[in-house]
Amino acid sequence: MFIFDGTNFYVDPNPQISSNVTVSIPSTQFPDPQSTLTQFSRKTIAQNAMLTFQLAAGVYSPIIIIHKDASRITIKGTMIGATPVATNFAQTGSSASARAADAANNIVMLRSRYGSEIRITTDGGIGFSNFGPGDPTIQDMLITHDRTKTNVAGIATDWSQPLNTTNLAINVAIWGCTWAYYCGGMQRVSGGSANNCFQGPTAINGAHIHISSGFISCGNDYVGMYSANGSVLVLQAGVQSNVNGQFGALCSGESYILIQGTPGVSADRCNLTGNGLWDCYCADTSEIMMYGTTANTLSPPLGTIGNFNGLIRSTG
Fold first, then answer.
1. DSSP label at 167?
2. How far is 113 from 205, CA to CA, in rounded Å?
3. pTM of the model
4. Residue pLDDT, tens place only, 277-297
5. Domain 16-314 indexed as CATH 1.10.10
6. What are the DSSP calls for 7-23, one per residue?
7. Element holding 209 (H helix, E strand)
8. Which of 303-306's residues contact partners 24+ apart within 8 Å by CB, and which partners?
């Protein structure tokens, strides 16, 4: 629209995105994800519209979203191979040497499947984070760190913010971070993986993480799944946590983990096996509840209160 102010004509840009839009990155106009998000931060996204940022194959810097309509934003990578499944991951053992060898094989496999990679290179770095309102989506992405820095999170919600941020991760693979997911708020995860991190998905300080659709946490140094300090972790539909250095699932500090496979349906069965110390460990007035789940080493023993009022229950 041309506006005349009495002296000059100028263009009044449309402040609203009123239909579905896909923005390809990189391009001449949109060279990288972060500067592109800044350009679109002044735009309103209508309730019936979605804004998708499609990242070409390549390596990208970490991404921060702050947008009032973030629930209608998707950051989507490019897959160059089939989505990995559990049998694609090297999982030869929980010892340090086995995990190191597996990690080297697994990053080669992941880079042959995921064309778009977010690479973290700084202390305290976060691969993807939402520091504003809403529930943005990140999809089909590999997030990596070479383990030379400290306190690095693949995806973080409420890293240092009040309990008011969240996001949805679909088919995101995280490799080499301190925490695959660090959550002090709300986090939804559908598929994807955590490998060669210190900790897999970590819910802490009243957080809630919901993980489904065959997520794989394997070969992490300390723990595959962790719920602590009044948090809730829900694992459903074929989630696996195997050959981690110490624990498959660790629940402590008045927290709860629900591991909910489908009894009698092998594709939806959850598996926590081959972990260094315990497949499931529960302590400090906490509970782990299992349905349709295979876990071989448990502390305290099934149906027994121990480890300062920890309880593990199962229906098979």
1. -
2. 34
3. 0.94
4. 999 999 999 999 999 999 999
5. no
6. S-EEE----EE-S-EEE
7. strand 208-212
8. none
